[in-house]
Design brief:
heterodimer, A: mainly alpha, Helix Hairpins, 78% helix, B: mainly alpha, Four Helix Bundle (Hemerythrin (Met), subunit A), 0% strand
């Protein structure tokens, strides 16, 4: 059988990769994808702990996290669309002033 | 039987980690989005090994099937070009990252070693049709013990829909 620590190690690895991606990437949509990756790593931690201890609360938490991630993705993409309309560029290095 | 579950875990965990690395390595954001879809599907398989059937199916239907499709719509709508290699503004910071990464990896090893060899319960908790992880268990918990987060989440979704419509409309509509 697979020990619990393996699941947590995979989750930590995915979270680290997502965090590195948020720092390294310069495209706004790629940064957003890495944020979704971090959310999924936390989901894996919650579901694995819920499965190992027999508590359904962890999976409910994951349900709510997925809902919040969907709402955040919708609003974030709307913001990215409006930024793109104004500046014609998705490079976050160029979106560094509040003035147009 | 034990070997099979270990092999399944290793296969899907490796698929998840490798496709997550591919997100970082691709220049075109469309390829990154497709790699993220592979990661989501591998994670869904890992949820199935944890007896979390409802979450596994919801992950495929909602996350990979709706959220990632929205991402791909937006990527194709904006026609984002591939990223050109950037000039680094501060080269010295990358040497600061190595000790921090070392500390994080040491913490991970500490957690992994202190948890030890705790393995899965061999049968799901509860009866067959009402085990933890089935739709029944999540449904009853959602509407009895966790009713308040459920209602608050519905308000949150309403806010998100209104916000997205307001933010993305053109001026003068």
């Amino acid at each position: 059988m697979v020990p619990l620590s393996w699941y947590l190690a995979v989750s930590a690895l995915l979270f680290t990769i997502g965090a590195v991606g948020v720092f390294i990437k310069r495209n706004a949509i790629a940064i957003f994808l890495c944020i979704e990756l971090m959310l999924n790593a936390v989901n894996l931690t919650l579901v694995s702990l819920s499965g190992f201890f027999g508590d359904v609360g962890g999976q409910l938490f994951v349900f709510i996290v997925m809902t919040v991630a969907a709402a955040e993705a919708a609003v974030g993409l709307a913001i990215i669309i409006s930024i793109f309309r104004n500046r014609e560029s998705l490079n976050v290095d160029e979106v560094d002033t509040l003035k147009l | 039987m034990e070997k099979a579950s270990t092999i399944i875990f290793i296969v899907f965990a490796a698929a998840a980690v490798l496709s997550a690395l591919n997100i970082l390595l691709q220049r075109n954001p469309l390829y990154s989005a497709l790699s993220l879809i592979v990661t989501l599907l591998s994670l869904s398989a890992l949820y199935l090994t944890l007896h979390a059937e409802f979450i596994a199916v919801i992950q495929i239907v909602v996350y990979a099937g709706a959220i990632m499709v929205l991402f791909i719509f937006v990527i194709m709508l904006l026609n984002v070009p591939a990223v050109q290699p950037q000039i680094e503004k501060q080269k010295g910071l990358r040497y600061l990252a190595i000790p921090f990464a070392g500390i994080l990896i040491a913490e991970t090893f500490y957690v992994v070693l202190s948890i030890g060899k705790r393995t899965m319960p061999s049968v799901p908790v509860g009866t067959e049709a009402q085990a933890v992880g089935t739709t029944w268990s999540i449904g009853t918990s959602l509407f009895t013990d966790y009713l308040l987060p459920f209602e608050v989440t519905s308000v949150l979704i309403l806010m998100a829909v209104v916000g997205a419509m307001v933010l993305a409309r053109r001026e003068g509509d």
